[in-house]
Design a protein that fits this description.
By secondary structure, the chain is an alpha+beta fold. It has a single domain, classed as Aminopeptidase (3-Layer(aba) Sandwich), CATH 3.40.630. The protein has an eight-stranded mixed β-sheet, with helices on both faces. Strand 5, helix 4 and strand 6 form a beta-alpha-beta unit. The longest helix has 14 residues. The N terminus is likely disordered.
């Protein structure tokens, strides 16, 4: 897969946007992307490296040689996908969605510059298949980002098995 490069200039820097996969991204950048995902601290890092290594698409933003944002489209485990759609009360939709936005994170100092929205839009425009995502109900930033990316809240929220919070299911396509 080719790496697509998009330029977005703001008043202080030129940020480069890329979409590729693990085979087209250098080890150095992949390590930076993994560290960014860890900064978000909302996922189990035990499976992150395996998932990004096999991800069909990874969007990321660079400011010079530093990764500042990442969004990963992954192939979720079937049982996990089934559990999410069932918990949201829409198990009949599960078979339609084989791709999940699994990880998204932007460094704090870049969050007001539209980096996340730009990455999300570029990611979903590069994929024609239906996509889903799950988010914490209280994470208003990612929830708004998905709305701007054309996702719709689907089904009902449900209580997470991993903590004292509720989750949302989002779908596109």
């Amino acid at each position: 897969m080719r790496v697509y490069e998009f330029l977005f200039e703001d008043q202080t820097t030129t940020i480069q946007y890329h979409i590729g996969n693990a085979n087209s991204i250098s080890r150095n950048i992949m390590a930076q992307l993994s560290r960014l995902i860890a900064e978000g601290s909302e996922v189990d890092m035990g499976v992150v490296n395996r998932n990004i290594a096999s991800a069909p698409s990874i969007g990321y933003a660079m400011d010079g040689d530093q990764a500042i944002g990442v969004i990963v489209l992954k192939n979720p485990v079937n049982s996990y996908r089934q559990k999410c759609f069932a918990a949201a009360g829409v198990p009949e939709l599960e078979r339609r969605y084989n791709l999940e936005i699994g990880y998204a994170f932007v460094k704090e100092e870049y969050r007001t510059r539209g980096v996340g929205i730009y990455l999300c839009r570029k990611m979903v425009r590069s994929i024609s298949a239906p996509i889903y995502a799950t988010t914490r109900e209280a994470n208003t930033t990612i929830n708004k980002l998905l709305q701007f990316g054309g996702f719709h809240k689907t089904g009902n929220s449900w209580k997470s098995e991993r903590g004292k919070y509720n989750l949302f299911l989002w779908t596109k396509g």
